[in-house]
Amino acid sequence: MGCCTGRCTLIFLCALQLLAALERQVFDFLGYQWAPILANFLHIIIVILGLFGTIQYRPRYIVVYAIWTAVWVTWNIFIICFYLEVGGLSKDSELLTFNISRHQSWWSENGPGCVRKEASMSGIKGLDSHSYVSVIGCALEYRYIEVMHSSFQILIALVGFVYACYVVSVFTEEEDSFDFIGGFDPFPLYHVNEKPTNLLFKQTYL
Hints:
By secondary structure, this protein is mainly alpha-helical. Helix content is 62%, strand content 6%. It has a domain of 132 residues.
């Protein structure tokens, strides 16, 4: 296949997904978002598998990638619902941190235009070593940044799913056509001449 085909497009989409996943993984690590960290890790592995299958003409790997993209879309829809507080979900809950810590998204304190201020709480008993952090001046709420991240992931995953199905169909057609012309025939045509040759040797021996 030429370079301007579905295969090359899928390779580009997988590379783009890897870059987007790595970027997202960095910020999730900074925010201690353990559930997204695990999901991103699995996503990176499957995308690498899909990329390898596309380069090496392995349709089974691409099928695994296509199935995962459907799961990945579902996960990102959940993330969008979580930050928009749809269906009883709350962005202030500790669901994404597995209730291990009270951390929120890294963007909640480091978004565009955000100014982070710490106020000492030494006057309150039991909180001598703690401080109250307030964030003001944010040009965009962190939940909308997370929603945009997830929306972009959904977009490239859907396009990747379409191209993965297309590439699998092309690979399958090529394999079928190769089988039809005898490309995988374990018994080549020249084996028909083996019997006369053996008879010739027997006659010479007698």
